[in-house]
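General statements about sequence and structure are easier to judge against a single worked case. In the encoding step, the backbone of a single protein was reduced to a row of integers, each denoting a local shape. The record that follows shows the chain in one-letter code together with its fold in token form.
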Amino acid sequence: MTEGLLRDGARSTGGLPRATARENLALATTFFLPSLARGTITSSPRGHALTTRLDTMARAQRVLSGLRERYGGRSVLVRGVSGPTVLVLERADIERVLTGSDEVFTLASREKLSGLGPFLDGTLLLSRGGPRISRSAFATSVLGVSELYEGFARVAAEEAATLVPGVLTYSAVNDCWNRVARRCLYGEGARDDTELSEVLAGLRRAGNWLGVRRGRQARLSARYDALIAGHLSRAEPGSLAGLIPSLAPGAEVCPARQAAFWLMGFTVPPPGLMQALALLASFPGGSLSPSYVRACLLEGLRLWAPVPALMRTITSEVTWGGETLPAGTGVLIPLILHARSPQLPYADRFAPEIWMDGTAEAEWLLGPFSRGPGQCKGMNLALHVGTAFLEALLALARPVLERPLGDPLPLMLDTMHLRLTMEPRLTREPRLTEEPPRLAEESR
């Protein structure tokens, strides 16, 4: 696209359009700074409440729409938090990045390295080349053992039953989910190890400072690794940790680091669980089949994504938009804004059907667990356990919101301060056993 095809005042050098100083300022104040306030690694309750009250996402959406219109829907080079960054706006560019090789678009972005370097070192998330291949194979071998899924579903149902009847808060659901995660990942001996989850939470909070609290991260990481090592030493049958000895992974796999990262991966569902319950309370009458409940969980994660953006870093020169971008250039896919794009007819409404009829799978603007080679390897496991957790709650009680969500749905939801009343059902709902639709193969 030549400069003449851009809107008046827009800047292009014949390659990627460049955001103007005014546009960069608008992006910083409506998207980057609010994202930092909410937390780049983990949500801050105060920051989340403040940005929700200020409705910063609506402002960011207007800025993004303006950029799309101004630059003809093309991706734009902007000034990101860590330097020059491609703001990915085109579907084709999203697909290119997410399906591209980690030798070109590495998941080890500068933000991840600065935010969680001590903790993530040696994990699949920050691996490239040969180590990534061997670590990916190991993760597939462990996380894909479906024979354990039935037992994990029972664990989720047992823990979920302790929450009803009564008032559900995010804190209560998160604590309950952490028990589920520890039991499934490391065995019954880890159920009551609340220190493990607290240390992980501390690591993630320190990560929000993007490297400023590196000393604290190093101390917490050492303690976290020690706790994980204790649980792995038991290798409890029926847990993921119990599979490791039989696989005999080599040293290059760093199995203890992979196992340490599993628990962080399991921190994604709790916001989705609360959001799904809020949606079901606001739009009752749907089926309680596994596929529908699973779709509601995914829909909550689409509407209010806990990870606002997917980040990559270009590792070698790459041609994009007719120009060569140097290694070190950032790549940012504003997932939370794309999922609510006006281009999508269901953008601001409750649409669980898109996760059941193939619509979401075909849409590159959506991807709460990422896509392509960087897609979360534990996606199906997390969704299976999360669905079982919700099914157990819904079989026992009906979620009620004092103020049901409206239509259109708000761009932001203060998930961490949601309160739902779980009203006991007069009779237990029958649990349907249909198989949920299988989603794309995952591979983070």
The first helix runs from residue 21 to 38.
